[in-house]
Structure formats: C-alpha cells, structure tokens
Amino acid sequence: MRASSKSGHVRREPVGPGQESVWDYPRPPRIEPVAKRVQVVFDGVVLADTQSAYRVLETSHPPVYYLPEGDIRMDLLTRTSRSSFCEWKGVAHYYDVSHGERRAAGAAWAYGAPSALALALAKHVAFYAAMMDACFVDGERVTPQPGGFYGGWITRDVVGPFKGEPGSFGW
Prior knowledge:
- By secondary structure, the chain is mostly beta strands.
- The chain has a single domain (31-155), classed as Metal Binding Protein, Guanine Nucleotide Exchange Factor, Chain A (Beta Complex), CATH 2.170.150.
- Helices cover 0% and strands 43% of the residues.
- It is built from no helices and 15 strands.
- The protein has strands at 20-21, 30-34, 38-42, 45-50, 53-57, 64-68, 77-86, 90-99, 102-110, 124-127, 134-137, 140-141, 143-144, 153-154, 158-159.
- The chain has a seven-stranded antiparallel sheet, with no helix packed on it. Strands 4-3-11-12 form a four-stranded antiparallel sheet, with no helix packed on it. A two-stranded parallel ribbon has the order 1-15.
- A hairpin with a 2-residue loop joins strand 8 (90-99) and strand 9 (102-110).
- It is globular, with a radius of gyration of 16 Å.
C-alpha cells in the first residue's frame, strides 16, 4: 500500500477485528504496561524474557517495547558513548549487544533519567528487532519497523502505514 496520496495525505490501512491503527496513537506518546510475554533472542541466546514490559505508542509508529533490566541479560549489554534526544522521553543512551564472537553495535537503548512524561521507562531497555535474531510478543515473531532509524515492533494486531516506510519522510 502506498503511504501517501498525491495530495500528501496518509492513506490509512483498514483496521480489522482485534487490530489497532498507529494513526490512532497519540502525540505526545502514551506509555502503557504490557501483560503479554515479550522475548528477545540474540546469537541463539534468550537475551530477555518478561511479562512486565511497557510499550510506547506514538502517532505513525508501531509500538516500541521497553523491557525491565531485571528480565534482561544485562551482562551481554555494554553501554556506549552514543546518545540521542527525544523531545518526549529525554536523553537516551545506547548499548552494544555481544555474545561469543557476535556483536550488534547500538542495538539497544534506554533513558537513564527519563523526562516526567516517561518515568515508567526508568531501568527499562528497548531493542532494535532488526539487529536481533528474533523478538516475540506472545509468541508472535515481530517485524522490525522499516527504515532502520526507529525501533518499533510490528505485530499482526497493528496496522500502518508506518513511519520509516518509503515516502514517509516529513510525516
């Protein structure tokens, strides 16, 4: 499906039963707890496994899942000097993920001192699904958000079009 029409308006994908559109997500984003089982696998190792994640819902983006540090193999993450700024969440710092001979640079991020809007994300880490072997939400393997810049996870219950797809620059 094309992301936008000639007039520049986004053509929303139809929402089916049990689905939600990322175009109904708010701005600023909403943070909500997730009771579903969320797992991250890297180099054949279960890097994270939790039923205490949060998801961040922001207009045009698939949800970004943040997992509690206590449910992550933090010994496989190394904090880097890289940082970025989000107007809603604050300053993010990044982690390399390593196991054996394999390393994924900047594959995870966290907000050490999140803004007041994002306090729930303290001591939680998000992962780029494209840099992992696999990420799962309730057993469903997620599809990474397109474009490589954003870290959303696409599941069958979320429809777009999504920021990061061709033609979405400027949304």
